[in-house]
Amino acid sequence: MVSKSLRLSTTNESQKSTVRLIANAKLNLGLRVLSKRPDGFHELRTLFQTISLADWIDLSYRPSRVREITLEANLDIPHNLIVRAAHALLDEAGIGGRIHAKLTKRIPMGGGLGGGSANAAAMLLGLPALMKRRIPLAVLSRIGAGLGSDVPFFLHGGRAIGLGRGTELYPLPDGPSEAVLLVTPGFPIATPEAYQTISANLGAESASTAAFEAQVWQGEGRGFYGDKRGSLVNDFEPSAFEQFPQLAAIQKRLWATGASPAGMTGSGSTMYGIYGSKQDAESAAAKLQQWKTLVVHTVIRRRFRAMWFKQLGKFSDGVMWPPAV
Ligand code: C5P
User: Fold this and answer.
1) Cys-Cys with 129: which of 62, 85, 149, 312 at CB 3.0–4.6 Å?
2) Which atom from ligand 1 is nearest to the alpha carbon of 116?
3) Whose CA is nearest to atom 10 of ligand 1?
4) What pLDDT was estimated at residue 5?
5) pLDDT value of position 6
6) Catalytic residue numbers, as ranges
7) What is the pLDDT of residues 281-296, one digit of tens each?
């Protein structure tokens, strides 16, 4: 029986467990696209960072011999990864169950913020705890990679280097939490098309990773972002800026209001700027009123995990990851 103070309520009669999962979005602090791989994906070098903007998933699970997965959401999302993640977990555990997820979507879609992937990863972390099944992290990562290239990152959170398809991950140390201004220009950019556009211009030679490496090494000290404009490169920016000149205009305004770095996350369309303080980010937001803005902050891995442990309640030793009841 799980204590109510742990925000996991269990009704004995129905054996139904419910929990609210917080699924944080991410930024790509730089994204190099090196080459097209034989599997059709692209070889990446990226820096992932979780941020406080999040979707909520109110998830309930009831043991059953039959399988029933239902999703209720505040907007219609075709091929929702929440449902696919639930199926994959029931397949893995070899059990049935009645699963209901109520999604409150707050992360813009088609924005490069990884909302769908974050939802899938939240299911991979949360559902095993409700099912009382311990599924090893390596297995969750494998299932996650099958759902989407960004999903494995969301199992870890914080700041991490992503290699390969983006599914090979190495943690970077936690720095201080930083103030972030998000600017959403109001139109989505579809990731597969964005890859197609830049793929045509990829040479046989891999792009140099020297700047990316320098950036990661700088992460050891505080001067993570290099010079005023930051040394971060996102290979999706040139084609996106050409197609949507207002993105370049947003970047200039972010720089002009003191952001360092400022850039596009993932394949766009969301732009971000990192500021020295929340006040700085808020006064920048006031100057960018023609666009939709949101002040958020980076979520360091220690906080990310503390949040998950709080969400999922009791676990054996406080060291184990992922948390399991
Ligand atoms: O893995 P995910 O489903 O998020 O990827 C969406 C699309 O983005 C893929 O179908 C592919 O076209 C492209 N992609 C890629 N290389 C990557 C990641 C994604 O080409 N490393």
Assistant:
1) 312
2) 4
3) 192
4) 37
5) 39
6) 26, 150
7) 999 999 999 999 999 9
User: What pLDDT does 4 receive?
Assistant: 37
Nearest CA to ligand 1 atom 14: 41
Write down the domain spans for the chain. Answer: 8-172+301-313, 179-297
Per CATH, the homologous superfamily of domain 179-297 is: GHMP kinase, C-terminal domain (3.30.70.890)
Among 35, 36, 37, 42, the mutation site with the greatest number of ligand 1 atoms within 8 A of its Cβ is: 42
pTM (two decimals): 0.92
Query: Which of 127, 75, 78 lies closest to 105, judged by CA?
Result: 75
Q: Tell me what pLDDT residue 50 has.
A: 98
Distance 99 CA to ligand 1 centre (A): 28
Concatenating the DSSP letter of every residue in 106-141 gives: -SPTTSSS-HHHHHHHHHHHHHHHHHT----HHHHH
- Separation of CA 191 and ligand 1 centre (Å): 7
Residue closest by Cα to atom 8 of ligand 1:
192
Q: Are 157 and 299 in contact (CB under 8 A)?
A: yes
Ligand 1 pocket list (CB less than 6 A): 41-42, 44, 148-150, 165-166, 191-192, 195
Give the chain's residues under pLDDT 70. Answer: 1-14, 203-208, 218-231, 314-319, 325
On whether the 8-172+301-313 domain is CATH 3.20.20.210, my answer is no
- What is the DSSP code string of 64-122? -SSEEEEEEESS--TT-HHHHHHHHHHHHHT--EEEEEEEE--SPTTSSS-HHHHHHHH
